[in-house]
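User: Some background: our group keeps a shared notebook of sequences we're curious about, and every so often someone picks one and asks for a predicted structure to add to the entry. Today it's my turn. The entry only has the sequence so far, pasted here. Could you supply the structure so I can complete it?
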Amino acid sequence: MGCKETQSGKAVEFIKGSYGYDASFLKKHLDNTIELWNETGARVLLSADYQGRVMTSSTNGDSGNSAGWINYDLIASGQFREQFNPVGGEERLWIGPEGGQYSFYFKKGDPFHISNWQVPPIVDTVTYQVTHSDSSSVEFSQSATVTNYSGTSFNIFINRNIRLLDSRTLENRLSTNIPGNVKWVAYETENVIKNTGDNTWKKETGLLSIWLLGMFTPSDETVVIIPFHKDKNAKSFITDNYFGQIPSSRLTIRDSVLLLKCDGKHRGKLGLMPEIAKPLAASFDFKRNMLTMILFDIDSAGDYVNSKWEQQTQPYKGDVANAYNDGPLEDGTQLGPFYELESSSAALPLQPGEMQTHRQITCHFEGDYAVLNTLAQDLLGINLDNARMP
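Assistant: Of course. Here's the predicted structure to add to the notebook entry:
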């Protein structure tokens, strides 16, 4: 169990899976943790050590469920792995694309294989500066130079501003009222990348996107729910074979919504292009009665980078939203288990001194199943009874 010392000097113990347990663990092992909170029980824990990422959150204080996936063994080791450090966290900033001739994760000439994949330090191991912090908001920043597969270098400045949302702001963004008997937490991140170099970024030599990824704890009864605009050619704007074809038993695509089983037992990733994507994606954990949603910007006319691990004929025909279910790799090892909800910005040809911004809201709702089902129908247009997967 994890424990926390109260003002009276007594230690309160928390069970694994609770926010109090994870907060105690992270504060023990990390140097720079920051907590956002309000009096209704919302909690958000962030780390400057891990690039200003949101590590986890709670709808109900220390005793509430911890929403983010945490890699306890890796964090406790105090060590960094060579390729990628899956420390967890329910929202982190990466840069795209991941694959292709403009990739930031493969060196020029290397085959697009997991053995050659390398996450840039600026989004994996570098500590960010804290430029502002109070009980409801925090700001991080850092600078770096990154080079893509084609050999083009980018001098960048990254700024991340995270703020806890109040009920009025969230209800305005959702265009609905949150039932009074539902516990919830919501935060918005504003993510800025600035071209601090001397050259304009050009499509012919590669562009950069802001990529937000959230790692969440799966259960055998977790389903990702992504509504999309109805289109007779919708399936042509959905990629479901990033790491091999996702089995039909795990993926259901209807005329305006897709369902992906996310139990952390079978590796697979899918993505939706801006032609059909709506500015939201969600998951529901039927075991914990937790509804999770992300809301994000979409530029319907923008160029979105293609992250498939291959040389590409259409490098700017990529996704705005993604979902990933972790599972065993070819050698039997596994990063998680976790699952991810992701969003990306468009890629812009920034001139020196220009900036681009990508915003995302992450929110969790917990309560009675019938009440959450009504909320899901309102926000996602689906009855949760029809989203269950065997």
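Suggested note for the entry: The two ends are 32 Å apart (CA to CA). The mean pLDDT is 95.
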